[in-house]
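Hi V.,

You were right to ask for the full record rather than a summary. Here it is.
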Amino acid sequence: MTKNFEFKTLYLNEDGATKHYTVKCTRENFEKIVDVRNILGNIHIPNLTQQFEGLNSVGRIGLGNQLKDYIEKQ
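Predicted structure:
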């Protein structure tokens, strides 16, 4: 069972069709500030492994999926 993360958008910059988000992701004793891009509905997390440092591969997948859902709802 994947634990849910909490998200808070700290910064949003719109540049034409591209939206650049800075999102705070938290869960229990974990906290990361992550940069995300939404380009015409395509969610991209640059440097995924470095940004999700401290999480195992299952945690990265869970965070990535939940973060994508969060951005899509924005």
